[in-house]
Amino acid sequence: MAIDTLSLSRQFPRWRLRWERLRGNILLVVVMAVLLAMIVIPIGRLLINSFLEGHPALPEGWTLQNYTTAFGMPLFYQALATTLVLATIGTAITVVIAVLFAWLIERTDMPCRNLAWALILIPMAIPGVLFALGWALLLSPKTGAMNVFLRDVFALFGVEITEGPINIYSIGGLIFLDGLRGVTTVFLMVVGAFRMMDPSLEEAARVSKAGTVATFFRVTLPALSPAILAAAMYSFISSMESFEAPLAIGLPANIFVLSTLIYFTTRIQAPLDYGLAAVFGVSYMILMVFLLIWYRRAVRNSERFATVSGKGFRPRIVSIGQWRYPALALFVVYFLFAVAAPFCVLLWTSLLPGYRVPSIDAIRLITLDNYREIFATDRVFEVIWNTLVLMVVAATATMVLAFLASWIIVRAPVRGRGLLDGLMFVPHAIPGIVIALALIMAFLTPPLRYTGLYGTMGILVIGLVIAYISFGTRLMNSAIMQVHKELEQAAYVSGASTAKTLFFITLPLLFPAFAAGWIWVAVHALRAFSIPLMLSSKNNEVFAVLLWEFWENGTASLASGLGVLLIIALIPLSLLMRRFIVQVSGQQG
Amino acid sequence: MNVTATGCGRTCLATVLISVACAIPAEAAQFGTTIDEVVALAKKERTVQVANSWRGPVLKEIAEGFKKKHGLTFKQTYVSAIDSRERILSEALAGLVEYDLVNVSGELRPQYIKAGVITPLDWSKLFPNVQPTLIDPNGYFLAAGMSRYGIIYNTSLVSSDKAPKRWEDCLDPMWKGKMAVYTRPRTFTGLWPAWGEEKSLAFHRKLKDNGPIWTADQTGTAAKVAAGEYAFGCGLPYHTFLNIKRRDKTAPIAFSIPTELPIQIGEAFAVMKGAKNPNAAILFASYLASSEGQAAYHLYGRSNPFVEGTLANEQVNKAGAKLVFGGWEFAGAKEAAAAKKIVEAWGFPKGR
Fold this sequence. Notes:
heterodimer; A: MetI-like fold; 28 helices; B: alpha/beta; D-Maltodextrin-Binding Protein, domain 2; 14 helices
């Protein structure tokens, strides 16, 4: 199928030769063009807008004022510092909890380990915004259900306080939420390493009479430190992008992080200022690029110290003796904080006309009216439909694009693969809020303005594809590497075209990885918040946006009702994902 | 290895052609220049698409009244705060016009005019019976609802005798950390014409120093006052109080009318350029501004305090409050400039 360029050069002029070469690489050209339009144009537009005065579609001339204003604002530096502090301490908490549970669940004889493995995935079913709203209801200083309970307990001991003792609307509150939120992801990143690690070092430690704790701290942890470090850095980067909790908890406390500063500048403050937001976005993106380069280098170096190999062994289960049940109790406490408490308070609020502290009087007010009101609103069905469409289309588009891009990167003998690989890395450095801001600017101005996608489901799909394409490509890259190209070559020999081979030979072989990626993107699309919120319009509203609208408009009970329904829908998807994660990573769960 | 381009090429070409065809705007609808023409053209149009923030019984009342008077219907898409109006402006600039009639926020009115996305009309010629104060002198907007801003407090936490009754009461250190202030300063831009810049900014610096809890939504703030999280919200519109009470009749909140009561044009409707039902939209806006339409506004808490016999007028007279109203001259560019200065005094990112 390769084009004989020598014979062509004798027959055709140079332009024709170039055209034929282009045709020969049509897949690369199309994929590159799509990705360039989706990624490079919005980023370029964001950069341009940072030098423009006025509304993106009605610019009032070039200026450096946006930069001087942004960099002269104490709030910008405060937000930057808060973002870093939040990410650092939040990550430390996340990693300690996740690593501990990975070890307990995977390597010890803690009771109910299999159940714990399944339950630890449930937090993924609670979108960040609902988690934050749940905890706002639990730990608001005056009316938070948990604070009221704690005050009642203190009163039994003669300590009378009128508010608190815990204020969720604080840096501490944000750190607490951030620390709990990332546990599932870090757990999934390190649990495989715990299962696959070479047990000989631990066995040697035991032969040398080291105890369980000493072996864990002096052998197991150091041996797995590359995997833990990689997970910690990933978690740090995710925390840097955190938006939901800072929006629901930080803003009322006048605590800004970079993401909420952008949201505030383009959505809340009057008048709105896109130029200033663009500067915040560009600065945020540059910071994230540096962090990702650091992450990639660390991960690359960590591979040199691999203790997890492809050998077929299974590490021994460690007995933790009398600590078995305390360990289980610790897991139960985590589950209560990460899932049960926020879910229960949302359920409680959804059954009341307005939020009330749990009491006998409040029980008398219980009603299903909120659920009736939710289902009586015709808009809700439109929103459910939009959410499902977004979930399916975004997941499919992301994974198909990721599959094609990965195939080109790993297999296609064409020039420009390195560029494509680099391009796939870029979106990982762009926080969701910045992607949304860049898309607003890009689709309000030529050439993308003429696509008519602004305000449609299309722009949401593009936003989510950009947000998740890096993950999809990484997943597909490693999956394609595991499939030998002999099978594809056999198809070519039998006369199949590249497209046919890709979709009928390669893709079916990669189905577990493709399905795992699809479900991962679908779950994330269902709970996505910053991108749909920033890009929402009359015709593309999704669940999370309606939920936030209910909350913002003072109908916490409707927001809670909608949230409860969303969580119930997400739980089976999260559990289904486990099956594919296990299949992809070759684990047995 | 290469991929045959033919199949992909045809599909791509078809997609591009369909996209281009969809992007070409449809022929603009015709506007009537006399009331008879407007009525005749409106009969051929469909349901008016309105972007506004009505909730509760006002919707039914207006729908029935409009149907009875003109035999037409409307559909509201709920929008609130400044960002949704900004979104509608952005959509219009991108060629997407989903609404016939939009209630444009005060701070955004100059931008809508500048962007050329709304249509100026000779409202007084078309509807001579509409109160002149409701008509924008430049013809872009027709006002309907009037917002009045006061203090919403929790009756379980604050007794009526201690409830703030003057704006200066929000500066009392006893409320430090207990009161909420909405970060979009419409209440305080409403006071600006009476206070002037110096007094306003001095007040806002002190307000900031008194450690308010900044909030990003007004009804949400009122809901948290009702829940007991904040003692009161300093500067919230009356209709948010009604919104809470309508859903939760037992909510322990009350509305305190301060001695100086800022009034803002709460609903200024504009007909969008490219609207699919422009004549029906004109009739709908005029219905809202008519005496029949205005009668429904007491249900939503946005009746006109300048008109004798309205609920707002009764409330104001009973409280003996002094009305502060900047009118059309202040609404728009001057209000936006005042908002910038207030936001800056509060220490938030300022729009320049």
